[in-house]
């Protein structure tokens, strides 16, 4: 029977390497992701029973490079449903690491609760020597059951490091120490069962956002177009032709745009496509009216959001408005 004092934590599983399996104990890359079901993940860490009343639910079973808007909506709705009851104190979401930061930021904008929501993954499959999944899962449950995590927005926990969904990104293809918010930093650490926070998000999240996905069945199409030397307008035109309602331009440097791409941006804007200027650099603010006259063109800058997170916010923004000024306001707020 559940112990009254322990927090009730729901584990929602989506797949990823944390549920992956290799062919040998030394295989740490090239294994198969998303094979172990959620109950087996939980049973594999019997220590969980000492810190929480845990139960699992399988939302999807995919490698996270295959994440979709549909799964995001299903996941967000389920998180909101569960957190609205008194039976659930916090949620842990097991997820592949490739798009974990995108799912985390999406939930950060649409979860309507102050209760902890923690995304966790692994870089090594459970079959590997020194697998990181079991300890990451344990620490994620510690965090989701902690008072310290309440009201901090959606959190990411791998490698004993706590990060904010907004700022964290995957920085190494295969190392355990991959989730970082370069320059802005971690929110805190976990040692044993002790959660220590040193900072908190300053941007609006969860209960303070204007986004509501509960009645949505789909999200507007937003594509990302990359900036590089010798660029042409071909990729941006292709996104418009495919029906994108918004395009994030992953610009060079401070969001600069190649001279050959600018006419394609103007044509897209005339068709009502919303253009957000982000940067491929990975750190720093994209300056409004800096490398590009945003006031003249009615383009939007991504602030410090990387292209894949700017895409998440732009999709949600487009569920409310197509007004570039309103959308710019959202990019300053979230
Ligand atoms: N480490 C991982 O989880 C990588 C895997 N490709 C995924 O994102 O599902």
From TrEMBL:
UniProt xrefs under InterPro entries: AsnASE_II (IPR004550), Asp/glu_Ase-like_sf (IPR036152), Asparaginase/glutaminase-like (IPR006034), Asparaginase/glutaminase_AS1 (IPR020827), Asparaginase/glutaminase_AS2 (IPR027475), Asparaginase_C (IPR040919), L-asparaginase_C (IPR027473), L-asparaginase_N (IPR027474)
Cite the binding residues for substrate. 64, 97-98
For this protein, the record's Pfam families field holds: Asparaginase (PF00710), Asparaginase_C (PF17763)
**Alphabetically ordered keywords of this record:** Hydrolase, Signal
Where does the L-asparaginase N-terminal domain start and stop, copy by copy?
A: 8-202
Catalytic activity reads: L-asparagine + H2O = L-aspartate + NH4(+)
Q: Which GO terms describe its molecular function?
A: asparaginase activity
Q: Which EC number(s) does the record attach to this protein?
A: 3.5.1.1
Superkingdom, natural source? Bacteria
- How would you classify this enzyme at the top EC level? hydrolase
Q: Which positions are catalytic residues?
A: 17, 97
Q: What are the Asparaginase/glutaminase C-terminal domain coordinates in residue numbering?
A: 221-331
> GO biological process: what's one of them?
asparagine metabolic process
Recorded family membership: Belongs to the asparaginase 1 family.
Q: What is this protein called?
A: asparaginase
């Amino acid at each position: 029977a559940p112990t009254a004092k322990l927090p009730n934590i729901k584990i929602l599983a989506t797949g990823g390497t944390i549920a992956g399996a290799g062919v040998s104990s030394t295989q740490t890359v090239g294994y198969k992701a998303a094979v172990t079901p959620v109950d087996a993940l939980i049973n594999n860490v019997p220590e969980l029973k000492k810190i929480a009343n845990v139960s699992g639910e399988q939302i999807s079973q995919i490698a996270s490079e295959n994440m979709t808007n549909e799964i995001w909506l299903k996941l967000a709705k389920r998180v909101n449903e569960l957190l609205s009851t008194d039976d659930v104190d916090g949620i842990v979401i097991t997820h592949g690491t490739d798009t974990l930061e995108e799912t985390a930021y999406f939930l950060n904008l649409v979860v309507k609760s102050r209760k902890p929501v923690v995304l966790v993954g692994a870089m090594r499959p459970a079959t590997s020597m020194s697998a990181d999944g079991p300890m990451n899962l344990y620490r994620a449950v510690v965090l989701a059951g902690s008072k310290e995590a309440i009201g901090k927005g959606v959190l990411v926990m791998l490698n004993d490091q706590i990060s904010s969904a907004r700022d964290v990104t995957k920085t190494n293809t295969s190392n355990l120490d991959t989730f970082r918010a370069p320059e802005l930093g971690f929110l805190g650490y976990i040692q044993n069962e002790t959660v220590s926070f040193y900072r908190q998000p300053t941007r609006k999240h969860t209960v303070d956002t204007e986004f509501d996905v509960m009645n949505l069945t789909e999200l507007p199409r937003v594509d990302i177009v990359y900036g590089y030397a010798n660029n042409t307008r071909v990729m941006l035109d292709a996104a418009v032709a495919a029906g994108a309602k918004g395009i994030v331009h992953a610009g060079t440097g401070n969001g600069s745009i190649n001279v050959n791409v600018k006419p394609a941006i103007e044509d897209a804007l005339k068709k009502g496509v919303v253009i957000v200027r982000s940067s491929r650099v990975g750190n720093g603010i994209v300056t409004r009216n800096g490398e590009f006259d945003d006031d003249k063109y009615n383009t939007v800058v991504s602030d410090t959001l990387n292209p894949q997170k700017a895409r998440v916010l732009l999709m949600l923004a487009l569920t409310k408005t197509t007004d570039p000024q309103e959308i710019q306001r959202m990019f300053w707020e979230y």
